[in-house]
Amino acid sequence: GLSPNQQAFAREIRAMQLRSSLFAVAVVEIKPQLEVLLKLPPGSLTKEIELTQNLIKLFVKLQVPCDLVTYDGPDDASPAKKLKRVRKLTSALLKMTLLDDSDSSDSSDSSDSSDS
Asked: Are 56 and 65 in contact (CB under 8 A)?
């Protein structure tokens, strides 16, 4: 084993290492904030894992403004209809960004197609 002096030295070194490092874990509940932002009823995104991931991808990776996927229909619509609309807007935007990525690798500016 280690001598008492070596043990004391090892403890002191470890204490110094711990003092010089900071480790923190923060848990941020993002779904409730997304629901407010997208004008969806509370709890709407609870089981919508893929939709939530796609929304985060649009906001964080692709820097898409949230108003492009926010629910835009009547306030008295059912939660399912509101969710369906947000899912449709999200899907359309993802398709456009994927098409845009493949177009930019093929040609610089070929044509402008709009969908109504």
From this structure: no
Q: Are 69 and 86 in contact (CB under 8 A)?
A: yes
Q: Identify the residue whose tokens are 């001598």.
A: 3
What does pTM read for this prediction?
Answer: 0.64
Per-residue model confidence as pLDDT tens digits over 35-50: 999 999 999 999 999 9
Q: Which of 60, 86, 59 is nearest to 72 (CA)?
A: 86
Which residues, at least 6 apart from 58, have a Cβ–Cβ distance to it below 8 Å? 64, 69, 90, 93, 94, 97
How far apart CA 93 and CA 95 sit, in angstroms, is 5
